Amino acid sequence: MIIPLRRTFASSFIAGAVVFAAPTTALPAQNEAMPLRATVEMQPAPASAAWGVINGLRQELASLITAKNLRPVHETAEQLGAALIKLREASKDLPADKLKRVQGAVANLAKALDGAHDAADEGNQAGTEKQLKAVDGLLKVLAAQYPSEVATAKPVPAGLEDHSAHMHAAAHGEPTVEVTLLPSKAPQAGTSVPVVVKLATKDGKPVTSADLELAHTKLVHLLIVDAGLTSYTHEHPIETAPGEWSFTFNPKAGGTYTVFADLLPKSTGMQEYAKTTVRVDGPGRPLDTNLNLTATVDGYRFDLKIPADEPLTAGDASVVSVHVTKPDGTPASNLEPIMAAFAHGVGFTADLTSVLHVHPMGKEPEMESERGGPDLSFHLQPAMAGFFKFYVQVQIDGQSRFAGFGLNAAPAKPDSTAHHHDGTPITYACPMHPEITSDKVGDKCPKCGMSLTAKKT
Asked: What is the CATH number of domain 24-42+168-280?
């Protein structure tokens, strides 16, 4: 049996929904001295602050569903899921019995919220309403574990500035974990080499399995791609010592490879990407910016479609579909579960400053015997304009296959600045980090990814 552990983050890579991660700064290769970047410790927010955000987002979710405005439900459900994780992390001082019920309720709420945004994505009003009832029931169970004055905290209006109770997070785009790769010998193209991955906090403390949450059945996902964006692999190192994780690297070409360690630290409850590079001896491949909507791997054909009314545009969400065909031309309905999903999507911008990791929309497999396909849908929201490479990974007959698509995101629509009736600009702020403000409609928080909304005056 598969236990699908879906990540729920406001900023990026929720199952079926994704936003390009905020730009990151490359960690130098093993032989370079410069550090990855400064990091900031994240502290749990008070439970009362978390409940204020939860109650506000629940109101927003209910309003959207009641108004049959299903398009924004996906993002709001993600934001509510992120707030619930914050609440869980802020509740570790509860009595053991209550803490256990909190953990169970948050896990079940994650499933209900997944169901809500899946139904909303499909335009299923009745299904979305059903999931909202489930969310409300679970929130009552969750609230019963806290003093009434905590669980009934006044809903935080989006952007309400309250510096006494806001949630702390890492600085813009900064991971709390640093990663270093230590190959047993100089990597060469076409040759396998054992590699030790060292994970540590800013102050050098080893990051162990006890410090990480499972995300789609794995503690560490390594997303590895060459500079040409033509060779990509997805690895899962095994912990061999405190702070040390091992895997075998088999580069197909030479040149510089960028490695993103996709992690979910328990200390933050938020997904992050620690980044480094590794040099491989041998001729490298130039950046290939050719666009393609069709890819063939081992005879399997992958066709990607972008809806005409939702073109890929920086800052806007689009639902793209991928149809998989067997070598004999028949639909491929034999996609096997891989890491609790029927596929994984990973994308990289041309300059390798941004990465995405997304899973198909819809129901995820619960049993190893289940099969998916031939059609997969992914919710994409590029953060920047320009070329990016999107890889779809599926498993067939026990073997992973990676289909790469060269895509382009159009420039973002012109920002608009809204004004009050008296002509003064409206200020937008993040409900989780009210110190983050903007005067532009549609901006997002660089810390957690939530949409900035108008502050009350």
From this structure: 2.60.40.1940
30: helix, strand or coil: coil
In angstroms, rounded to a whole number, what is the distance separating the alpha carbons of residues 385 and 382?
7
| Confidence bin at 404 (pLDDT 50/70/90) | very high
Alpha carbon distance 127, 134 (integer Å): 11
Q: What fold, for 47-151? A: Four Helix Bundle (Hemerythrin (Met), subunit A) (1.20.120)
Express each pLDDT in 350-399 by its tens digit. Answer: 999 888 888 888 788 889 999 999 999 998 888 789 999 999 999 999 99
pLDDT tens digits for 436-449?
Answer: 888 766 677 776 66
What's the CA gap between 242 and 248, in Å, rounded? 19
Q: Is the pLDDT of residue 274 over 60?
A: yes
- pLDDT at residue 14, rounded to an integer: 30
Least confident of 126-140, 191-205, 234-248, 425-439: 425-439
**Domain assignments of the chain as residue spans, ordered by start:** 24-42+168-280, 47-151, 294-409
Find out if CATH 2.60.40.1940 is the number for domain 294-409: yes
Q: Are 285 and 188 in contact (CB under 8 A)?
A: no
Residues 101, 119: Cα–Cα separation, whole Å: 27
Dig out the tokens for 191 from the structure: 């040759």
Pairing type for strands 453-454 and 221-226 reads: unpaired
Query: Is the Cβ–Cβ distance between 443 and 314 less than 8 Å?
Result: no
What is the reported pTM?
Answer: 0.66
Distances in whole angstroms, Cα of residue 22 to Cα of each of 29, 79, 187, 383, 437: 21, 17, 29, 8, 17
Q: Residue 425: what pLDDT?
A: 65
Cβ atoms of 57 and 78 within 8 Å: the answer is no
**Residue 73: closest CA among 23, 21, 128:** 128
Average pLDDT value for the chain: 82
Of 218, 260, 284, 232, the residue nearest 354 (C-alpha) = 260
In contact, 449 and 442? CB cutoff 8 Å: no
Kindly compute the dihedral angle of the four CA atoms of residues 183, 187, 193, 199, in this order, to the nearest 10 degrees.
Answer: 30
Q: Contact, 218 vs 238, CB < 8 A?
A: no
CA gyration radius, the chain: 22
277 and 27 Cβ atoms separated by less than 8 Å: yes
